[in-house]
Backbone:
């Protein structure tokens, strides 16, 4: 069943992760055509972990990106050959199945190489008239290619040999063999020539093939102490030579094409495929062949299906979102909408939490909310509305919180205090964690800026970590190529915030906030980045752009 990924924004907060998990359950109840998979594209904070543990629900799987990968488009229904298969069998399968190539494995299904029509063609187009070709052979492959009988079992299962055919007069043949052949590397093909056979059984040839005799007559021959293989061939000499060529185990002809991983990006393997003689690459995991990716597969590449939760801007979306088939957006933020190639379902309302919108969709679809899902939704709402203190809180949020509290058997305000108490203090967290946990990038009026928010139960500790926070703010600014970076630290108890910035003189000169120090501001009554700080930043940037 095809998967649809449901994902919140980068640097996920509780509302983003809880809404994705809750919406995946709803979609699975009302649409059986897909498998709906909640994912996250970043590390979750302690508050989010607490809510999922409280609900006894697993966190959504972490995925770095949703760029098309080999595993999404590779062919898995394979026709393979084994390294010991004779060339005759390999060519027969190619012809019958109308194939251009086959991957070759060993008996343990481990990848050995690739072999295609072009590779075999090169073998037979070689100009080696000046030297006798040496064939690498296996006795079993030779028997199958000859479709004959083993008259004597030799000591060597594998051997390399040049072919000598006894077509000359006896004395001339002996002279010829003496000049060109090493006994241990000679395969003799002979007809009903008793003197040559008599001599041959005394030599160290690894194999002899007898032609021109009946099988019954061959079985009456005395092989003496001969230690090599003796085969009966039902074909004439020229056909038998051809059978020897076709008996070559394909493992001896392999080209070791470097395999790719199922998790390689499609774009990263395209060049290697185009340069491959088979226009394909084997896909290997833990040494085992699991698929093949071809140029045709790349042209028909499958795009991931995506539902975006709690955001609608490209800068905040999981990496690779631009390559995905976007199906839905569920959000409660301003519109900075990602471009789409086709119409999508877009559900957006000015409420305090995306979890509130998911709650309303449960009601609209008349799907009962299980207690575990209710706890996730309630946690997301209480987190994003700061226990209903945020100015973003609406009556829709309050109504949903009251209903979900009843389903869960919890007091909303007490649960809210638990949730925020689960967040570590400023002094116990690294600056990178504080800034990176809830961080969003925006671009307005030609200015690219970032705003991170950290919520705490007291601002008293801020002075102890301010220096490290400033240093990390400049790191984030540089790494993300920003013009301006800010951290909003919010005291949810006193309902006030302080804003630390990297400085952006044209804008900060006209800030409406009280200045506490260099690039440090006091924001009384400000709890919401979305509804209080961001509109002020937008106003200032618009003003200085004129």
Residues:
């Amino acid at each position: 069943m095809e998967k649809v990924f449901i994902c919140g924004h980068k640097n996920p907060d509780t509302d983003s992760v809880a809404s994705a998990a809750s919406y995946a359950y709803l979609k699975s109840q009302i649409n059986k055509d897909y498998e709906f998979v909640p994912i996250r594209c970043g590390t979750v904070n302690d508050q989010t972990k607490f809510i999922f543990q409280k609900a006894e629900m697993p966190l959504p799987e972490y995925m770095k990106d949703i760029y098309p990968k080999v595993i999404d488009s590779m062919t898995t229904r394979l026709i393979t050959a084994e390294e010991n298969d004779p060339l005759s069998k390999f060519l027969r399968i190619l012809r019958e199945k109308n194939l251009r190539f086959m991957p070759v494995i060993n008996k343990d299904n481990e990848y050995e190489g690739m072999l295609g029509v072009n590779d075999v063609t090169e073998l037979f187009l070689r100009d080696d008239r000046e030297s006798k070709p040496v064939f690498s052979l296996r006795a079993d492959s030779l028997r199958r290619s000859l479709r004959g009988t083993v008259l004597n079992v030799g000591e060597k299962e594998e051997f390399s040999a040049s072919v000598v055919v006894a077509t000359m007069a006896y004395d001339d043949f002996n002279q010829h063999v003496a000049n060109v052949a090493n006994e241990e590397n000679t395969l003799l093909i002979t007809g009903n020539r008793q003197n040559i056979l008599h001599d041959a059984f005394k030599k160290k040839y690894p194999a002899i093939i007898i032609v021109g005799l009946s099988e019954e007559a061959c079985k009456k021959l005395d092989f003496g102490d001969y230690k090599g293989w003796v085969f009966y061939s039902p074909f004439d000499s020229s056909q038998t030579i051809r059978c020897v060529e076709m008996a070559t185990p394909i493992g001896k002809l392999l080209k070791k094409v470097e395999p790719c991983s199922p998790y390689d990006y499609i774009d990263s393997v395209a060049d290697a495929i185009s340069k491959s003689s088979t226009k394909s690459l084997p896909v290997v995991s833990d040494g085992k062949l699991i698929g093949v990716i071809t140029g045709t597969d790349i042209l028909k590449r499958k795009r991931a299906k995506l539902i975006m939760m709690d955001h609608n801007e490209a800068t905040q979306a999981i990496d690779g979102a631009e390559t995905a088939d976007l199906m839905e957006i569920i959000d409660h933020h301003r519109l900075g909408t990602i471009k789409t190639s086709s119409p999508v379902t877009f559900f957006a309302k000015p409420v305090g939490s995306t979890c509130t919108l998911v709650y309303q969709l449960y009601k609209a679809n008349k799907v009962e909310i299980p207690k575990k899902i209710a706890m996730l939704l309630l946690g997301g709402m209480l987190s994003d509305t700061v226990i209903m203190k945020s100015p973003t809180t609406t009556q829709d949020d309050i109504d949903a919180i009251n209903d979900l509290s009843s389903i869960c058997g919890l007091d909303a305000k007490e649960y809210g205090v638990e949730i925020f108490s689960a967040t570590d203090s400023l002094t116990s967290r690294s600056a990178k964690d504080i800034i990176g946990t809830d961080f969003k990038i925006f671009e307005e009026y030609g200015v690219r800026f970032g705003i991170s928010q950290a919520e705490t139960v007291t601002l008293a500790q801020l002075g102890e970590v301010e220096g490290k926070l400033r240093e990390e703010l400049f790191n984030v600014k540089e790494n993300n190529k920003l013009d301006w970076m800010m951290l909003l630290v919010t005291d949810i108890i006193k309902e006030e915030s302080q804003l630390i910035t990297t400085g952006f003189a044209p804008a900060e000169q006209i800030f409406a906030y009280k200045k506490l120090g260099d690039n440090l501001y006091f924001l009384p009554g400000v709890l919401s980045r979305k509804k209080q700080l961001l509109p002020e930043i937008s106003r200032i940037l618009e003003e200085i752009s004129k």
Observations:
- The chain is about 35% helix and 25% strand.
- Residues 462-479 form the longest helix (18 residues).
